[in-house]
Amino acid sequence: MSQLSTAGWLSPTRAWRLIECPASVLPAAGNGPSGGGDQEVNTGTLAHRALERWIRAEGYRAADPKAALAEAADACATELTGGLPASWRVSRARLVARGLSLVDLIGDRTPDQVHSEIELEDEDLRLRGRLDLLLLGDQIVVVDLKTQTLLEEGVPEGVAFQLAVYAHLIQRNYGTLPTRTEVFSLNRGRIVVPLTDESLRSALEALEKARAADSSIATPSSATCLFCDHRLSCEPHWDVAPGWPETDAVEGEIIRVESAATGVSAVHLDTFAGPVWVSGIPSVLVSGAPGERLRLVRIHGGRTGAGDLPEWRWTRRSALAFP
Ligand code: SF4
Question: In a mutational test of the pocket of ligand 1, which residue from 25, 230, 251 has the highest number of ligand atoms less than 8 Å from its CB?
């Protein structure tokens, strides 16, 4: 049984990962994937920075809070050294449009009652969380900013779990549970996530159980594997992921590589489902020769009309490895 990192500190996000797939929180091997935009500032990070900047500047008390939020968002964007994340334009518009609902929530609290990106911890449970927005006063409110598209009624189970952990951290640090726990979703706005003693207890019990489990067990699922550090080398993942209905993972033997003068390459791969093309890969990453195996994740496409070869496209979030 391996319990390498599960005895260490966990954020709410990693605690949920541990519950979903114990192996996902083990340290990643040094020979990581090539490519991918994970090191770049993504839309989520940028939106969190903008919200934090707005709160710290007390933009919610400005004569025009919406304009102050837009200003904070643009200031954060101009600080980036690389390009803007692909979906930033839409996310910025949603953040600015929905930001006024946070002004209502903050109400007449004084600045020392309005905190952004505040870190709380529980040393006994070795849990540490950074709260996007914590409102103190007669009512304690915790708000978690979510930039991914939330489609279902309520919130996904993992999000409810994260809020339960935040609530626990508030109880631990302030002696009382929050009055309200909310998600601030860029596509749906404010969503109240009800918290009960029972939901809090079951969240902590699930974590305790996961911590005691064998952390070498890998339990793949499309949502948990999506940004897992182990994805390119995790065999249980490759046993099932290429067959997922909406898969973004392709593995195969290189048949041919075609490189363009523009610095991008297309790779013709022989996969278990037949030959496919993957295009738009930065040429600098394609060092493989015909006959070598190649794995790619977070690529787009794969469905074509009858008679055509499936064609996949490299994206800013893609990564590849030669296993
Ligand atoms: S790739 Fe998937 S199955 Fe493998 S460790 Fe990560 S989350 Fe678990």
Answer: 230
- The alpha-carbon radius of gyration of the chain (Å, integer) is 22
Predicted confidence (pLDDT) per residue in 290-305, tens digit = 999 999 999 998 655 4
Q: Are 170 and 132 in contact (CB under 8 A)?
A: no
Amino acid at 268: H
- pLDDT tens for residues 208-244? 999 998 888 999 999 899 989 999 999 999 999 998 9
Atom of ligand 1 nearest to the CA of 224: 7
Please work out whether the CB of residue 224 comes within 6 Å of at least one atom of ligand 1.
Answer: yes
Instruction: Return the beta strands (E) in 14-53 as ranges.
Output: none
Count of H helices and E strands in the chain? 9, 12
- Residue given tokens 């839309």 in the structure block: 43
Nearest alpha-carbon partner for 116 in 63, 157, 176, 76: 76
Let me know: does 284 contact 263? Beta carbons within 8 Å. yes
Predicted TM-score (pTM) of the model is 0.83
- Residues 236, 196 within the same domain: no
**Hey, whose CA ends up nearest to atom 1 of ligand 1?**
231
Structural domain range at position 302? 222-321
- How remote is the C-alpha of 213 from its chain's centroid? 24
Q: At which of 188, 212, 236 does a domain end?
A: 212
What CATH number is given to the structural domain containing 95? 3.90.320
Q: 174 and 236: one domain?
A: no
Residue 201 alpha carbon to ligand 1 centre in Å: 26
Instruction: For residues 2 and 213, give the distance between their C-alpha atoms in angstroms, rounded to a whole number.
Output: 9
CATH assignment of the domain containing 248: 2.40.50.140
How far apart are the C-alpha atoms of 209 and 48, rounded to whole Å? 31
What string of H, E and C letters represents the secondary structure of 110-132?
CHHHEEEEEEEEECCCCEEEEEE
